[in-house]
Design a protein that fits this description.
The protein is mainly beta. It is built from 1 helix and 14 strands, in the order ββββββββββαββββ. It has one helix at about 100-105; strands at about 1-5, 10-15, 20-25, 35-40, 45, 55, 60-65, 75, 85-95, 100, 140-145, 150-160, 165-170, 185.
Length: about 190
């Protein structure tokens, strides 16, 4: 994050790096039931002796809207397409904490540590004799976070090209881990 001086006031902004993207295909209404463009972010060159030449690592689909002009596969999405856009929708995945027990997930109290106790981090009773199942609301160990989050109508402050890096400045902060990928929909 940083801040810009706009209209005699400091405005907090987040700088997002634009990564080159190449179009690898399309979804059509006749074949798939919707229209979208398929782009990749990272391309890996694999073992050519086995016949595997290219693997696309980060593949995304974007719905074709008024802002997008259909081009042929193999062309790149340019930074100039963002020139007349005021707000964007940003989607990302929260950094997960993996599988966590109830001590970290729900802040349960530790059980006794001494006198031969072997019940330190357990959740305790999970209830019922009848019905013979665990209640839906029961707090138990599970995978923590790693959810998809969307921010809508994020205001775009400026587009900056600095030392061959294309940066998009958006207002306020964008939560998430450093160097994580965000999906920006216009």
């Amino acid at each position: 994050m940083t801040r810009f001086w706009i209209d005699n006031d400091y405005v907090p902004v987040t700088l997002l790096k634009f990564v080159e993207q190449e179009i690898i295909g399309y979804r059509t209404m006749e074949k798939d039931g919707y229209e979208a463009v398929i782009v990749w972010i990272w391309k890996k060159e694999l073992n050519k002796e086995k016949g595997i030449k290219i693997k696309y690592d980060m593949v995304c689909e974007f719905k074709i809207g008024e802002w997008f002009v259909q081009t042929e596969a193999g062309k790149t999405i340019e930074f100039d397409m963002l020139s007349n856009i005021d707000s964007v929708t940003i989607t990302w995945t929260w950094k997960g904490k993996g599988f966590q027990w109830v001590i970290r997930r729900y802040w349960f109290r530790w059980w006794p540590e001494t006198h031969g106790s072997k019940f330190h981090r357990r959740p305790g009773s999970i209830w019922n004799r009848k019905p013979r199942r665990v209640a839906k609301w029961k707090k138990l160990p599970w995978h923590m976070w790693l959810e998809t989050v969307t921010l809508k109508r994020v205001k775009v402050i400026d587009r900056i090209t600095l030392d061959n890096e294309k940066l998009l400045a958006v207002k306020w902060s964008i939560p998430g881990a450093y160097n994580s990928f965000l999906k920006i929909v216009l």
